[in-house]
Batch of 2 targets.
Target 1
Amino acid sequence: MTHITLRIYGSLQDFLKPARSGAFTEVALQVRGPQNLKHVLEALGIPHPEVARILHGGKPVPWTALPQAGATYAVHPYRPGEAWPGPGPPRFVLDGHLGRLAAYLRLLGFDTRYDPQWDDGTLARYAGEEARFLLTRDQGLLKRGRVRFGYWVRHLRPQEQLQEVVHYLQLGRWAKPFTRCARCNTPLQDVPKAQVRDMVPAYVFRHHTRFRRCPGCGRVYWEGTHVTRLRALFRRVLQGERADSPRA
Ligand SMILES: [Zn+2]
């Protein structure tokens, strides 16, 4: 039996039972048998993709290290914008609970895999094989070994989820609104007005000049009232990106 102390910082306290706030929470543990730090933390409820670093005496310690008797380990979350190494934008895969969030991310231009039929194994496989950033409401899914990049979405309402994820990953630097199909994730193409005459309602055709079409599913996009509302939402979310995300 090995006695250790974990000092759990910031948003990682959301995984403790009960969840805690404040700068950090100290947890005293007795570790049985040869368990490395990854196992110890995940047994406590903290999924590895949200842990930025583990420090012992101010020095980084690898996940695979076996805890030393009497040691205190400081466990830190990522700061906003740190969780994706870049250099380009993250590509996402989302679990079946996050359909609206998936549509929002696509409309902001992010490559986002989503299918409500996919099981946990499929989601973890896409996260691993394609190095996608997994967004999920399922803490257990984040603990799977294949998942390298990921985040447990705290909020339940889609607009708040979007705000939360934009803040966590500081997505504003990469956003390209209305360049990707919300339904099927394919990049949109500009299309001459004459070509969409039979694809959109007559009043839309009369009142709009600029159209985009999805080469994947054929859906046609134009600057209707729906888009105006979404632009206002995206502006609000992107402007609020640097503000502290409210804790769920
Ligand atoms: Zn499409």
Target 2
Amino acid sequence: MTDNIISTVTVLGSGIMGAGIAQVSAMGGMDTWLYDVNDAVLEKARSGIGGSLKKLAEKGRIAPDGADAIMARIHFTTDFEAAVIPTDFVIEAIPEKLDLKQKTFKELERLTRPGVTLGTNTSSLMISAIAEPVQDKGRVIGVHFFNPVPIMRLIEIVLGPATSPTALSATEALARCMGKETVRVRESPGFATSRINALIGLEAFRMLEAGIASAEDIDKALKLGLNHPMGPFEMADLVGLDTRSSTIRYLHKTLGETFRPSPLMEKLVEEGRLGRKTGRGVYTYDAKGNRIPDAAG
Ligand SMILES: NC(=O)c1ccc[n+]([C@@H]2O[C@H](COP(=O)([O-])OP(=O)(O)OC[C@H]3O[C@@H](n4cnc5c(N)ncnc54)[C@H](O)[C@@H]3O)[C@@H](O)[C@H]2O)c1
């Protein structure tokens, strides 16, 4: 890497977000390493990215023969060192657990070249907390993508108190390569987007618990009455109820009672109803991810 020229990107975690981030990185021309803890999840990511590229080719958003070249730029691996040693920019997209992220960032500082930007896709945690075990805290920055990553246009850049101007300019350069718009936000639990989104989602769950309306009608009301592109329950199923629940528990701890967790959401998580990724959340989905009508429960 010279100045802000980023040619190799490493994405940690190949779940809902990591797979999408690796895809837009490869679409932006970067050599991309996608790391996860086992081959089965990497295979799922590979087929998800393949399917997404096929749809983009059908819509004319990439050249008909472009998918193979994009795919060839992604190296799927379970070898952490192989994934991070050659990198110019890391984006961590592992589960929303502070201790796990801290442990990972400590390793990242040890294995990457000094000065390489260490980005986190956390949806709520403080950048300074994730950077806590890192000696050069200027390298750590929030690079918050949105789901589905290939479609959503924004990256919310979250600045910790120590984040360096170099990390900020590298992140803005990376966003341009990926064709994304950016906003800058000072660190605060849930930043700008997750804080508001969690509140809307929580209020929808409280209304459902109180029997005010069905999930379908609350979703329909927000879409047709308030012009939201997606209802709050559709959104919760897309995000993953476990991920949403972790965010809400953290916002409750840091910002107070407004974010008290919903017992109904917690119950669905305990039952393994995590949303689209498990085939069932608020709604039920078939193997292809299509909603099964009238199956809200
Ligand atoms: N889901 C969303 O809509 C969304 C949106 C923005 C940000 N985020 C954030 O992105 C991050 C990832 O969320 P997700 O929805 O993709 O989660 P996910 O559960 O779909 O994927 C997480 C992946 O991380 C892997 N993993 C677990 N431990 C790991 C480790 N030590 N090293 C590498 N990989 C590991 C898991 O195998 C899994 O594939 C979280 O911080 C989340 O808050 C999520």
